[in-house]
């Protein structure tokens, strides 16, 4: 590799605004209304003056990354209500195979749909033969004809068997195939967009997850089973009218006159449902974003006891969707009730007119009943198609969002084939008169006339204060953006003229906040160069000083790093990011604060490797290390959007106080000298080392033993509902779960009772209607015309009354069932979310409990429960009422025939239950596979800059596609089984009709019954058999709902290992003294139990004093803070507060006594005021917020912003620079006024002036115990006690002077020596540590 390395180009970079990862979370504060979630914000950032600049010139602009939800036209276009797509557009991803499948499925649906009207025509001919021969006493002929038609029924049943298999299996498979292709294209399109797209549109990670998960499911549902159903019902509708015209065209014409009215009612209903569906989806997307943000930032939420605030925000967002759901139920009821009203009135007219035709001998009773039956089935089929039409309305809205992304053309197209590809790169970079403003803030100039030349083979360092535009230069070189004015050239060629893919292949980026994906270390490294060998991977890791810690992990290079790399410390993540860039062996290397998260020893080794790597290359350095800057051939000082000074280090220093660079260096040296003086003074105090070290005489307290972190079955997987495919939910368990769910719905039992009454009435209509028709049929064969007229008039009035009742009771049942369902869904989601927030940190560290997966489960499980248990219960109640009425009528009229018909019911039931059992094995596994793919897509979009910089779009898409292959394969077999099972069930149903008709004829022949009674029994029970079959074909929904119900209760019932609300726990005193001690602590992270972090660690922080923790990266400094806050419990040993084990205190009360400033300054997507006030649980006053901001040296820059404290910070605070985010995080901790302050690299991103101000404020506040973690030893010199942690123990402990005097060759002295080589150890430009607080720091 060394031969290839020489003569290449390197760019090092590092301003706090570089490459912010677009983590899309949008959680309002407790007092911020949920409707603000979709407001677009365009918050131009006002300048923050350079730290040591006293110039009276206008302040410089902020060089900051734009917001994730910028307020430009692009954002409005993305977020405004998009018009639903055309119906044919839903099939835009169908290929040849899909066309064949859809063709076969359509034929199957048509045959299946036509089979019932054809059966009815056979039935009508049979009735005419039956009735005429029964009255003429020619029973032998009658029996022969009945047998003939019974065989016809078997033929129809066989046709239904084959056609239903084709319909179900083909539509299911093609739906999965097309939706898979659509998901892949969507992710391709999202990753193809230029970075400015995510700045200026309101596209967030949660939106991508929602589109790939929920929206894609809506589209898939519509173009698979729902479309098959629609064709089926429309075929039934059309064939019904065809049979009607051929049987009695006069009756058919009369019916045709009312069809437009039915169509109008259906159209109005569908339009209303589509509008409500769109609004409901938006509200649920907001709630999903809130949940995802809270889970992704769970450490901040739990540390600041913000669980209740997160719950309130989530509940408020769900309440919006709940209210829309109420209106949806009313609209659905009115629409379906209006359809039935029209259909029944139509049949009243038909019955009267049919009798008129029979009396005048225009037709006979059999043909008249054929028309009536056909029109009845056709009309009901039209009503039954309403859910399918509603599904299409939802799918068109959902597809509009997906297709908008797919069709959006990026302004900077990485896939363009055009553009120049240079044969060789010498590395001469030139920026001439460059002007630039971020697209989200076009009115705020970032760079103004910047001119900079980087000669080939030279090293140039960029320095400047926070927000001066250093990282913006890196973004422009990567062509994340194009300048608004001026030009950028590489070897004399405009960057715009170069092929973008080729250009980025010449570059390797290490962001200030390293982005790792939730896969193995090896896969993360391969993003640098796909196809690299293991030897090359290990060599790059060795050069980056990462190989040594990787091989110590249990799975070495195959270790899972967790969501966003949470399983690794910040330094470990940074080294992997550096190795990834080195593996790429790029022409241009961009290192944006690449060593900011490393301890001195690791940094020294990595820096040496980088120095070797940069030899003979053109190098652009953005750094705050004086040692790095001194090595540069040129130093360029950025100020106010331009280059104010250029020269060597010595030349710029020679300018004295007249030079900006010299003033910056002088300020750092003064800060360093002040720290030394303070350290010397502290050496006069008696060392507290002896008092600080725990006495070895104290024996270990083993009463608590080992923390019960062994993973129970319930802990193992939140996203799956049972590992085995063939692990069905046991009936007793299913019943208990259902009963528990019903009790959860107890406040709505009154609504459910009224809804059930409506469902029972609506269900009984079918049986009554069949009875009326069969009664009229017997009347048609009456020779008495006057009697016929009276009877027909009576039944017509009955039908008109039924139509009015249908309108009323359909509205009642849908309105009240939807009210029950919406309330249940909201309650389930709230309780699940509450249960999730209660879990201990180890649970969140598991890969299967990533934020994207939890958000998806909250959305889908509750919806599946509601769909199966809530929505489908109305159908069960309807069909139960139907069975009750039908069986009663059947036994009263002719009990023998009723018994025979009921005897064959188990055949139908058994066949359908068989289908249900097969379906149960696949549902959960399919959902689990989709959840994994969804997480991959969410991470790829969240880290879109890293993906773009490494050209890894195709790799991420391939990984996504691979995770969709499993569901596609399983769907094929699921379709085969479901189609065959349903077909068998239908065949057995028609066989039972054939048997029933034969037995009815046998009864008439032997004089046991007459034609009138037997035909009534048969028709009424035939309708009830259809109802029973319909109920059992809901098995897939009940399987899905049962599994979801199991998952819901599993999540709710999981007992957290660290109980936050233990009522028996002791309260923490209102103002504890703050003495903290760790005694003989052993600890390993539950996710990596084989890697011991602490071994017999003993440590004490005295009340009101400052304890500083130092040591190499990964030694466990941040783990101490995690144990203090009880994010984890030690494996053995104790953690004490004021002499009492912290496990005896109430957990929330314990956390209220501590204020945390994490390594990574995470902010919520709210205003600056809300973010600071978040620190005070009950809310902070305006004065308290300002006071805290002033103490954190943030008030000055906040006041300079156009909207001041009301400025929206963007998702994860990306509107602000790293230093600004860190100061707000410090202010958030200060406003809490906790007696114990935990600072985890809290000032690593601050320049010297800000750090000095913050340190003074902390010193003035006094009286609190402070435990700080720092790599920069200048930060810890003034600490009362310094503890050096190494190899899981306290290697050295004491004050600064004590350690130097008593351990001159110890760890601390060695670390200090390393940093003395770089005396200006503080930031010329801020660094931002993005280490996770989960892993050993």
Automatic annotation (TrEMBL):
Protein origin, superkingdom: Eukaryota
Topological category with respect to the lipid bilayer: Multi-pass membrane protein
Transmembrane segments: 99-120, 149-173, 230-249, 255-274, 333-353, 365-383, 749-772, 792-817, 899-919, 979-1002, 1014-1035
Chain positions covered by the region annotation Disordered: 20-78
Compositional bias segments (type: Pro residues): 57-68
GO biological process, one term: response to blue light
All residue ranges annotated as the ABC transporter domain in the record: 429-665, 1076-1312
The keyword ATP-binding is annotated on this UniProt entry: yes
Assembly and interaction partners: Interacts with 1-naphthylphthalamic acid (NPA).
Family listed: Belongs to the ABC transporter superfamily. ABCB family. Multidrug resistance exporter (TC 3.A.1.201) subfamily.
All copies of domain ABC transmembrane type-1, residue ranges: 104-394, 753-1040
CC annotations in GO: mitochondrial inner membrane; plasma membrane
Major subcellular site: membrane
Compartments it resides in: Cell membrane
Protein name per the record: ABC transporter B family member 1
GO molecular function: ABC-type oligopeptide transporter activity; ATP binding; ATP hydrolysis activity; auxin efflux transmembrane transporter activity; auxin influx transmembrane transporter activity
UniProt signal peptide: none
Keyword Chaperone on entry: no
Species per Swiss-Prot/TrEMBL record: Leersia perrieri
SMART domains for this protein: AAA (SM00382)
Keywords noted in UniProt: ATP-binding, Glycoprotein, Membrane, Nucleotide-binding, Repeat, Transmembrane, Transmembrane helix, Transport
């Amino acid at each position: 590799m060394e031969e290839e390395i020489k003569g290449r180009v390197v760019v090092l970079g590092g301003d706090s605004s570089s490459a912010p990862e677009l983590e899309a979370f949008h959680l309002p504060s407790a007092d911020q209304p949920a409707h603000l979630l979709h407001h677009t914000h365009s918050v131009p950032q006002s300048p923050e003056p350079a730290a040591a600049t006293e110039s009276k010139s206008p302040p410089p602009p902020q060089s900051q990354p734009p917001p994730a939800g910028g307020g430009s036209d692009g954002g409005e276009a993305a977020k405004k209500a998009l018009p639903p797509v055309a119906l044919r557009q839903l099939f835009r991803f169908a290929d040849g195979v899909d066309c064949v499948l859809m063709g076969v499925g359509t034929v199957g649906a048509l045959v299946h749909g036509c089979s019932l009207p054809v059966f009815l025509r056979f039935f009508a001919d049979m009735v005419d033969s039956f009735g005429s021969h029964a009255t003429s006493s020619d029973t032998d002929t009658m029996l022969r004809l009945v047998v003939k038609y019974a065989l016809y029924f078997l033929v129809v049943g066989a046709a239904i068997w084959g056609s239903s298999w084709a319909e179900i299996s083909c539509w299911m498979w093609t739906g999965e195939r097309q939706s898979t292709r659509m998901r892949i294209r969507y992710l391709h399109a999202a990753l193809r967009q230029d970075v400015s797209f995510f700045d200026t549109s309101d596209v967030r990670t949660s939106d991508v997850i929602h589109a790939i998960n929920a929206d894609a499911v809506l589209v898939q549902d519509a173009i698979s089973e729902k479309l098959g159903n629609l064709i089926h019902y429309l075929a039934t509708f059309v064939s019904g009218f065809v049979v009607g015209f051929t049987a009695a065209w006069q009756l058919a014409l009369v019916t045709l006159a009312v069809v437009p009215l039915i169509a109008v009612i259906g159209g109005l209903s569908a339009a209303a449902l589509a509008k409500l569906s769109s609004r409901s989806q938006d509200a649920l997307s907001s709630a999903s974003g809130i949940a995802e943000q809270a889970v992704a930032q769970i450490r901040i939420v739990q540390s600041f006891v913000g669980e209740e605030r997160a719950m309130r925000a989530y509940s408020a967002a769900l309440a919006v969707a709940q209210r829309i759901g109420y209106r949806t139920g009313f609209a659905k009821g009115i629409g379906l009730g209006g359809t039935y009203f029209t259909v029944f009135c139509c049949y009243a007219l038909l019955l009267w007119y049919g009798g008129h035709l029979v009396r005048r001998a225009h037709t006979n009773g059999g043909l008249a009943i054929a028309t009536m039956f056909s029109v009845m089935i056709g009309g009901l089929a039209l009503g039954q198609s309403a859910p399918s039409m509603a599904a299409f309305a939802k799918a068109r809205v959902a597809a509009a969002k997906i297709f908008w992304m797919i069709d959006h053309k990026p302004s900077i197209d990485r896939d363009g084939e055009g553009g120049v590809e240079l044969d060789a790169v010498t590395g001469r970079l030139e920026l001439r008169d460059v002007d630039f403003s971020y697209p989200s803030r076009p009115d705020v100039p970032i760079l103004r006339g910047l001119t900079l030349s980087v000669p080939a083979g030279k090293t140039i360092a960029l320095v400047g204060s926070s927000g001066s535009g250093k990282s913006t230069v890196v973004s422009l070189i990567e062509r994340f953006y194009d300048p608004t004015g001026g030009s950028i050239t590489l070897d004399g060629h405009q960057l715009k003229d170069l092929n973008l893919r080729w250009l980025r292949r010449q570059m390797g980026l290490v962001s200030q906040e390293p982005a790792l994906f939730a896969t193995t270390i090896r896969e993360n490294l391969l993003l640098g160069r796909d196809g690299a060998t293991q030897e090359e991977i290990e060599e790059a890791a060795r050069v980056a000083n990462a190989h040594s810690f990787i091989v110590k992990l249990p799975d070495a290079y195959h270790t899972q790093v967790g969501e966003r790399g949470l399983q690794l410390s910040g330094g470990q993540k940074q080294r992997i990011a550096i190795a990834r860039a080195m593996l790429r062996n790029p022409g241009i290397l961009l290192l944006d604060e690449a060593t900011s998260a490393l301890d001195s020893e690791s940094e020294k080794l990595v820096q040496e490797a980088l120095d070797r790597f940069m030899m003979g290359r053109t190098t652009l350095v953005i750094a705050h290390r004086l040692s790095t800057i001194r090595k540069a051939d040129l130093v360029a000082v950025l100020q106010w959007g331009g280059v104010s000074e250029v020269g060597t280090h010595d030349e710029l220093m020679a300018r004295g106080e007249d030079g900006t660079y010299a003033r910056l260096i002088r300020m750092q040296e003064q800060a360093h000298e002040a720290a030394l003086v303070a350290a010397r003074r502290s050496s006069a105090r008696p060392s507290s080392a002896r008092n600080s070290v725990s006495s070895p005489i104290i024996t270990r307290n083993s009463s608590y033993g080992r923390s019960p972190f062994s993973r129970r079955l319930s802990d193992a997987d939140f996203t799956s509902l049972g590992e085995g495919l063939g692990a069905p939910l046991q009936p007793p368990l299913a019943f208990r779960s259902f009963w528990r769910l019903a009790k959860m719905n107890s406040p709505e039992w009154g609504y459910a009772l009224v809804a059930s009454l409506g469902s029972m009435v609506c269900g009984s209509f079918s049986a009554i209607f069949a009875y009326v028709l069969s009664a009229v049929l017997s009347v048609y064969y009456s020779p008495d015309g006057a009697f016929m007229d009276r009877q027909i008039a009576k039944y017509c009035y009955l039908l008109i009354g039924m139509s009015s009742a249908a309108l009323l009771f359909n509205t009642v049942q849908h309105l009240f069932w939807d009210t029950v369902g919406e309330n249940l869904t909201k309650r389930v989601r709230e309780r699940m979310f509450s249960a999730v927030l209660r879990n201990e940190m180890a649970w969140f560290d598991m890969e299967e409990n990533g934020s994207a997966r939890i958000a998806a489960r909250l959305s889908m499980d509750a919806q599946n429960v509601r769909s199966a248990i809530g929505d489908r219960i109305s159908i069960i109640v309807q069909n139960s009422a139907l069975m009750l009425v039908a069986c009663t009528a059947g036994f009263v009229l002719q009990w023998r025939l009723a018994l025979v018909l009921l005897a064959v019911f188990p055949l139908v039931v058994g066949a359908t239950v068989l289908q249900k059992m097969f379906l149960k094995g696949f549902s959960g596994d399919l959902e689990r596979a989709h959840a994994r793919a969804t997480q991959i897509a969410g991470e790829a979009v969240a880290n879109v800059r890293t993906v773009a910089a490494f050209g890894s779009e195709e790799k991420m898409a391939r990984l996504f596609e691979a995770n969709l292959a499993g569901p596609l394969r399983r769907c094929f077999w699921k379709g085969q089984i479901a189609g065959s099972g349903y077909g068998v069930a239908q065949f057995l149903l028609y066989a039972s009709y054939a048997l029933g008709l034969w037995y009815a004829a046998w009864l008439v022949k032997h004089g046991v019954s007459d034609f009138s009674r037997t035909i009534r029994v048969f028709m009424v029970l035939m309708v009830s058999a259809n109802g029973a079959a319909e109920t059992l074909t809901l098995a897939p929904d009940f399987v899905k709902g049962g599994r979801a119900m199991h998952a819901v209760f599993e999540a709710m019932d999981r007992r957290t290992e660290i109980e936050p609300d233990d009522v028996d726990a002791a309260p923490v005193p209102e103002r504890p003294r703050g003495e903290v001690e760790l005694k003989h602590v052993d600890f390993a992270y539950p996710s990596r139990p084989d890697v011991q972090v602490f071994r017999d660690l003993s440590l004490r922080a005295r009340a009101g004093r400052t304890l500083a923790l130092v040591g190499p990266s990964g030694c466990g400094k941040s783990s101490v803070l995690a144990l203090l806050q009880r994010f984890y419990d030690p494996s053995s040993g104790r953690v004490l507060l004021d002499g009492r084990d912290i496990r005896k205190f109430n957990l929330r009360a314990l956390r209220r006594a501590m204020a945390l400033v994490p390594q990574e300054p995470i902010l919520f997507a709210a205003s600056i005021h809300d973010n600071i006030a978040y620190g005070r649980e009950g809310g902070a006053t305006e004065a308290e917020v300002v006071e805290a901001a002033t103490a954190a040296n943030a008030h000055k820059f906040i006041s300079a912003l156009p909207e001041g404290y009301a400025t929206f910070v963007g998702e994860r605070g990306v509107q602000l620079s790293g230093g600004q985010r860190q100061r707000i995080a410090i202010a958030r901790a200060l406003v809490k006024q906790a007696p114990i302050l935990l600072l985890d690299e809290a000032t690593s991103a601050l320049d010297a002036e800000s750090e000095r101000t913050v340190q003074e404020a902390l010193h003035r506040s006094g009286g609190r115990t402070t435990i700080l973690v720092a790599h920069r030893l200048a930060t810890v010199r003034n600490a009362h006690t310094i503890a050096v942690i190494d190899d899981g123990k306290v290697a050295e402990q004491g004050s600064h002077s004590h350690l130097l005097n008593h351990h001159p060759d110890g760890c601390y002295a060695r670390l200090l020596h390393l940093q003395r080589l770089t005396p200006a150890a503080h930031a010329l430009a801020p660094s931002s540590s993005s280490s996770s607080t989960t892993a050993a720091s």
